[in-house]
Fold this sequence. Notes:
By secondary structure, the protein is of the alpha/beta class. The protein is built from 13 helices and 7 strands. The chain is globular, with a radius of gyration of 20 Å. It is 40% helix and 13% strand.
Amino acid sequence: MQNIPHVPVLYREVLSAFEDIEDGIIIDCTMGYGGHSSMILDANPNIKLIAIDQDQTAIDFSTKRLSKYGDRVTIKKGRFSAVIQDILKEFDISNIKGVLADIGVSSLQLDQKERGFSYESDNLDMRMDKDAPLCASKVVNEYASSELENILLEYGELRNYKKIASEIIKNRPFHSAKELSDTLKPHMPHGKKIHPATLLMQAIRIEVNDELGELKSLLHSLQEAHFPEALVAIISFHSLEDRIVKQTFAKWAKSCICPQEAMRCTCGNDNAIGKIISRKPIMAKDDELKENPRSRSAKMRVFEMDI
Ligand SMILES: C[S@@+](CC[C@H](N)C(=O)[O-])C[C@H]1O[C@@H](n2cnc3c(N)ncnc32)[C@H](O)[C@@H]1O
């Protein structure tokens, strides 16, 4: 048995979201170390699974881990924004019964210092796909002040984003995440339970991997696909991502899309593509929080597509 480097979050809730799927295909857009994938394959013995990841280390690990399921599993490497479009063309849409995305980084990516995701790393990389063109060093050492300010404010929600951006520019070039976080530590918010550099690292990571763009693109492809029936479950770890999911699901569930000021409905009032299953985000229960502290910021939302 391989050593499993990542504990899947909200695993009971994911299984319960997909429990009524008896056959067909489930797509795991963020296979990682295969935790959710293998649980879904065990719990739904007649389904097939297509699993995506852009990280070669995750692909190598999970190819071995999931090999026991034989031809029930197809693994695809790439960004899910691109791969999902190929899958939607390649497979009969009526066979796709579930889509899962557990957005963000895996524990192993965070823990392997050489990947650059940790504030203690001795490089500045943070690419989930080691072949991707944009790395953290480019963002930190080459971005203009206004670009840095934007990502620090939007993705890091750092109130003193202007000061932090100006300190980055004053002190660069930086060669490692450790050097960056040590230099900037005095300017980062203190007093929270997290390390002061966490929000800075998060902002850079979201930019490097275009995490919000990826999520929006995935949701757009799902919306355009016209699924006769499919369950979509998205787990996110950042308030901006959760807001995107919440607003998209609300839009998908809207039957009337006439402008608010319209006196009467002229849109046909049949534009909903399904219904929201979870009005409130689904979050980890106390026992999971104790077992796996990384689950504390996970929020899952589920939508049932049904045209
Ligand atoms: C939180 S982990 C998923 C863990 C997985 N659910 C498990 O149980 O092991 C997220 C994984 O998704 C991958 N990932 C994140 N964004 C991606 C994207 N846009 N395209 C493809 N893979 C992505 C990361 O490389 C990482 O391995």
